[in-house]
Design goal:
- This protein is an alpha+beta fold and about 425 residues long.
- About 20% of the residues lie in helices and about 20% in strands.
- It has 13 helices and 23 strands.
- A hairpin with a 5-residue loop joins strand 13 and strand 14.
- The longest helix has 18 residues.
- Bound molecules: zinc ion.
- The site of zinc ion (ZN) has 5 residues, from loops.
Length: about 425
C-alpha cells in the first residue's frame, strides 16, 4: 500500500469512527418556557468569545444556544433543538428579521480571531450534518453569526448596518467551510444589495465574501495530521480576555464592535485610569494607545444607548430619530415614542435619556396581564427591557419576574 493510500485510509477510518459525544450537564432551565420553532431555515454558527466554563454557564442560564462545542469536541446540549434559543440578537437575512425564530444556534468555545481545535472542526462538521439531515437546511444557509447580525444606528453609523459583531466570521471562509463539509456559500449580502443595510465593517465583509478570505484571517488553520495521532490533545490557546490597543484612526467601535459600551469591556487609558464601557460618555476623546480589554462571552452589546451631555439624539439614533419604533426614556422615567417628537422636543432631550431603536412597547402590566401575556415569545429575552414605575430601565435578566409591579411597561425587539 502506498503511503498516500494509507493516509487516505486513515482519514476515511477517522471520518467513520467519529461519533459525537453529547452532555446534558448544561441543559438550560429556560427550556420549558421556550416556544417550539415553527420552521428551521438556518443554522447559525458562533464563537463564544470566552472560555468554556463561563460561556457554558451563561448560555445555559439565558438559553442562548442549542449546542456548545468544547475544545475537546464534546457537544453540550443547551436548549432543545425544537425550541427557540436566543442566539442571534438583532439579525436579518433576505429582509427577514429575528432569525432566532427560524434557526438553530451552535456555539463553539473560542474566538472569532483565533483558530478552533481540529476536534472542534470535526465535531462541528458532524453536528451540522446531523442537523441538516433532520431539518433539510442547505449548505449556504449554514452561516456565521457575523453574517446575519446587524446593528441599529449608533454614533458611528447613522444607518442600520451589517458588522455589529464578528462572531464566528471564519465559518464563511471557503477553506474552513470545506473542513465543515459545506460546499455552497453566499457570494454577496442580500440585505446590503437591497439597501436595507449598509456595510459597517469593510474587513468583515471581505472575510465573508472575498475569494482570498483565508489570507485575511489573523490565524492559521490547525493541521489535520495532528488529530490522527493517538494523543490528540487540543493545542493550548492563549486563554483569557483579549487586549487590543487603539491605533491611530481607530475608534472604540473598530476594536470592540457592539461590545464597545458593555460593562464587561474595560478601557485602560494611557495615564493608567480604567473605565468600563458602560461608564464612558465621551467616545471621541478615546486616545491612541488606550488598551481595550474585552470581557468573556459572546454577549450582545446593550441595545440601550445613553444620551451623553451635549450630544444630539441624532448621533445615537441616526435617521431613526423620529421612527415609531424608537423610544426615549427620560431620566425621570417618562417615555416618548420617536414619532411623537418634533425637531424642537428632540433637541431638548436631556442627557441621561436612554434610547432604544427598533423596539415595540407593550403594557402596562396588570394583575391580570403578565409580561408573558404581553409578549409571549420575548418577555424573558436578554434584549427585552422593563420600565417599572419609579425605577430605571432594566434588562429582563435584572428583573425579578415574580414581582413585576402593575404599571410596568415592556420594551421588546420589533
Ligand atoms: Zn454569536
Amino acid at each position: 500500500m502506498t503511503r498516500w493510500a494509507l493516509a487516505l485510509l486513515t482519514v476515511l477510518a477517522c471520518g467513520l469512527c467519529h461519533a459525537l459525544t453529547y452532555s446534558n450537564a448544561y441543559a438550560s432551565p429556560r427550556n420549558r418556557e421556550r416556544a417550539v420553532r415553527a420552521a428551521t431555515r438556518y443554522i447559525i454558527l458562533h464563537t463564544t468569545e470566552g472560555e468554556a466554563k463561563p460561556s457554558l454557564r451563561k448560555l445555559s442560564k439565558n438559553g442562548e444556544a442549542h449546542y456548545c462545542i468544547d475544545r475537546d469536541g464534546k457537544v453540550y446540549r443547551i436548549v432543545d433543538r425544537s425550541r427557540v434559543a436566543y442566539h442571534c440578537g438583532v439579525s436579518m437575512w433576505m429582509g427577514r428579521r429575528n432569525l432566532d425564530e427560524i434557526s438553530l444556534g451552535i456555539e463553539v468555545v473560542g474566538y472569532h480571531d483565533r483558530a478552533l481545535t481540529m476536534a472542534q472542526y470535526n465535531a462541528l462538521r458532524d453536528l451540522i450534518l446531523a442537523l441538516q439531515k433532520i431539518y433539510g437546511v442547505s449548505d449556504a444557509n449554514v452561516m456565521p453569526h457575523a453574517q446575519v447580525a446587524y446593528g441599529t444606528p449608533n454614533r458611528w453609523h447613522p444607518r442600520s448596518h451589517r458588522g455589529r459583531k464578528r462572531c464566528g466570521m471564519g465559518y464563511a471562509v471557503p477553506a474552513i467551510r470545506s473542513m465543515l463539509g459545506l460546499t455552497e456559500r453566499w457570494l454577496s449580502d442580500p440585505d446590503v444589495k437591497a439597501r436595507r443595510l449598509v456595510v459597517g465593517d469593510v474587513y468583515l465583509s471581505q472575510v465573508l465574501y472575498a475569494k482570498n478570505a483565508l489570507s485575511l484571517l489573523p490565524y492559521k488553520l490547525p493541521s489535520s495530521r495532528k488529530t490522527t495521532a493517538k494523543t490528540a490533545t487540543p493545542p493550548t490557546p492563549k486563554n483569557g480576555p483579549r487586549t487590543y490597543v487603539i491605533q491611530k484612526g481607530q475608534t472604540a467601535w473598530d476594536v470592540a464592535r457592539d461590545a464597545y459600551n458593555a460593562p464587561t469591556t474595560r478601557y485602560v487609558f494611557p495615564d493608567g485610569k480604567v473605565a468600563t464601557g458602560d461608564k464612558i460618555t465621551n467616545w471621541e476623546a478615546l486616545g491612541v494607545g488606550t488598551r481595550v480589554v474585552l470581557g468573556d462571552a459572546d454577549a450582545s452589546g446593550s441595545p440601550v444607548q445613553t444620551l451623553a451631555k451635549g450630544m444630539h439624539p441624532r448621533r445615537v439614533a441616526g435617521e431613526a430619530v423620529f421612527a415609531a419604533d424608537t423610544w426615549y426614556i427620560r431620566p425621570t422615567g417618562g417615555r416618548v415614542q420617536g414619532s411623537k417628537l418634533t425637531e424642537k422636543t428632540l433637541a431638548a432631550m436631556p442627557p441621561g435619556t436612554k434610547i432604544l431603536v427598533g423596539y415595540a412597547m407593550g403594557g402596562p402590566v396588570t394583575s391580570r396581564r403578565l409580561p408573558s401575556q404581553i409578549c409571549p415569545t420575548q418577555w424573558d429575552a436578554p434584549d427585552t427591557f422593563y420600565l417599572m414605575p419609579g425605577q430605571p430601565l432594566r434588562a429582563s435578566g435584572d428583573v425579578d419576574m415574580r414581582r413585576v409591579p402593575a404599571g410596568t411597561y415592556v420594551f421588546y425587539r420589533n
